[in-house]
């Protein structure tokens, strides 16, 4: 069971999001906040990455294992 530093129990959606974040941090995954996805990069029936808009312009990011889209 996950808890917040103030002793709050994390349940249902909050627990899912907290566990995902914890796993991403432990795996040294790059987390891009406030990034606009321009398009999904699809090959066949699989999403292989995303095209993102940054201050420097549009760039493609290839995924090794998967793409997580969250709001």
Write up what this structure looks like.
This protein is α+β, with helices and mostly antiparallel strands and 71 residues long. Helices cover 21% and strands 32% of the residues. The protein has one helix and three strands. The protein has one helix at residues 12-26, and strands spanning 36-43, 46-54, 57-62. The chain has a three-stranded antiparallel beta sheet, with no helix packed on it. The longest helix has 15 residues, at 12-26. It is elongated, with a radius of gyration of 15 Å. The two termini are 24 Å apart. The mean pLDDT is 85.
How would you summarize the topology of this molecule?
Layout: H1 12-26, E1 36-43, E2 46-54, E3 57-62
Antiparallel strand pairs: 1-2, 2-3
Strand ordering within the main sheet: 1-2-3
Main sheet record: 3 strands, antiparallel
Number of helices: 1
What is the molecular shape? elongated
Helix content: 10-25%
Structural class: alpha+beta
Q: Can you describe this structure in just a few lines?
A:
With 71 residues, the protein is α+β, with helices and mostly antiparallel strands. It is built from one helix and three strands; from the N terminus they run αβββ. It has a three-stranded antiparallel sheet with strand order 1-2-3, with no helix packed on it.
Identify the notable features of this structure and list them briefly.
single chain; alpha+beta; 32% strand
